[in-house]
Amino acid sequence: MPNFRLPDKPVRPDLPWSIGHLRSSLIATALLLVLGVPLAWIIADFRSALGVAVGLLIVAVFFSISAWAVMKAGSIDDRLTLPAALGTYAIKIGLLGVVVLTMPLTGPINVRAMALAVLVGTLTWTAMQIHYVMTRRIFYVDYTPPSDQDHDQ
Length: 153
Prior knowledge:
Layout: H1 21-43, H2 46-76, H3 81-102, H4 111-134, H5 139-142, H6 148-152
Helix pairs in contact: 1-2, 1-4, 2-3, 2-4
C-alpha cells in the first residue's frame, strides 16, 4: 500500500500564481454587456436590459472574487486552493440563491433575463478561462508533484 502523506512544510510553487485570465474574461463579459443590454431592450424592455446588466455584473464579480481567493490561497500553500475554491463557490451559490429568492418577479429587474445573462456569462467566462489555461504554461497545468525521494530528505 503506497504511503500518502503531505510534506511537512507548505508546498509553494516557484512560479507566482496568476490571475491573468481575468483580463480576457472581463473583456468577453464587457462585450456581452455591450451587445446584450441593447438587444434585450430592443427585443423586450428596459427591465430585461437591466436584468442582463445585473446578471453579467454578478458573473464578473463572482468569478473575479473566486480567482483572487484561489490565487491568494495558492500563494500560501497549493494545498489550500481546493478549500478556497470550494468555500468561495459555496458562498457565491448561497448569495445568488438569496438574491434570486428575494427579488420580486414584477420588480425593476427582469429575473428571467438576469438568469439567462448569468448562464451565458458563466459559459463565456468558463470558455475564456479554459482557453487561457490551455494556451499558457502555468503552474496548475504543468505541475509535477515531488517524488518520494523529496519527502525523505
